[in-house]
Design brief:
This protein is of the alpha/beta class. The protein has a single domain, classed as Rossmann fold (3-Layer(aba) Sandwich). About 45% of the residues lie in helices and about 15% in strands. It has seven helices and seven strands. Helix 1 links the parallel strand 1 and strand 2. Helix 1 crosses helix 7. The longest helix is centred in the middle third of the chain and has 29 residues. It is globular and about 50 Å long. The structure holds NADPH dihydro-nicotinamide-adenine-dinucleotide phosphate. The site of NADPH dihydro-nicotinamide-adenine-dinucleotide phosphate has 30 residues, from helix 1.
Length: about 240
């Protein structure tokens, strides 16, 4: 069985920007082989080139986490190529902020499909492989929105509360596979650049710029959880920039 000093095969969803890309950089620098998934494959290819030029090991695969088939193909391709999947980081996410009475129902569906169903599809694809080996690590990216509800964020919070609940349930069911929830506060990324009511999005973007942590801080927390020995499961990491309060 691998110990914490071994190079691991680590799959990252939503690796084309923000926290996922920062995590790829950190874990590749730590000597792991990272497999990057997202829809924008041009971004993934450029990041793979960057990581390899720095001496890292990386490859990429197109991934839409809202499709169970796409997720299965992402995980299977990595397993076929490397013979194992040591860690899956379910990071892909979207946040479209608006009041419920704005009825942006398509965005509600998108948040449920990406944040919640995408995480479940990742578990469905990787867990059987990890159970068969008797080892593995699933890391889900939650949020401080998994602990506190704010106006305009009801649906986003609902998806993150749900991710927190299913992560805890998976942890309780697992004696072989490690399970970690990483819940950041405001973090510099592209999250507030898409979706939601324009005025709410602008306010959230300004707050994230002013109060946010660098995405590398979240990557460091993820690297910490992975670096523990297989016998130690870091369950929850909640983190904010100091100035967020
Ligand atoms: P970004 O917008 O920078 O990154 C989001 C990533 O998700 C992108 O790589 C995007 O790739 C991917 N993604 C979106 N939809 C899909 C899809 N259908 N299939 C595959 N990948 C998809 O935001 P962050 O880095 O901030 O977000 C990462 C995670 O961190 C999310 O789960 C978010 O909720 C969480 N988070 C972020 C916080 C913040 O303040 N930034 C705070 C707390 C949690 P592509 O478009 O190429 O498919």
């Amino acid at each position: 069985m691998a110990d914490s000093t071994d190079s691991k095969i680590i799959l990252i969803t939503g690796a084309s920007s923000g926290i996922g890309a920062a995590t790829a950089r950190r874990l590749a620098a730590d000597g792991h082989h990272v497999v990057l998934g997202a829809r924008r494959v041009d971004r993934l290819a450029a990041l793979v080139d960057e990581l390899r030029a720095a001496g890292g090991a990386a490859d990429h695969h197109e991934l839409d986490v809202t499709s169970r088939d796409s997720m299965l193909s992402f995980v299977k391709a990595a397993h076929d190529r490397h013979g194992r999947v040591d860690v899956l980081i379910n990071n892909a996410g979207v946040m479209a902020l608006s009041t419920l009475d704005a009825l942006r129902v398509h965005e509600w569906e998108q948040m449920v499909e990406v944040n919640l169903l995408g995480t479940l599809y990742g578990i469905a694809a990787a867990l059987p492989l990890m159970r068969a080996r008797g080892t593995g690590h699933i890391i889900n990216i939650g949020s401080t929105a998994a602990y506190r509800v704010d106006a305009t964020a009801a649906v986003y919070c609902a998806t993150k509360y749900a991710v927190r609940a299913l992560t805890e349930g998976l942890r309780q069911e697992s004696r072989d596979v490690r399970v970690t929830l990483v819940s950041p506060g405001y973090t510099h990324s592209e999250l507030t650049e898409h979706g939601g009511s324009p005025e709410v999005r602008a306010a959230a973007h300004a707050a994230a710029q002013e109060l946010g942590m660098p995405a590398s801080a979240v990557a460091d927390a993820i690297a910490y959880a992975i670096a523990q020995p297989d016998s130690v499961d870091v369950n929850d990491i909640t983190m904010r920039s100091t100035v967020q309060g």
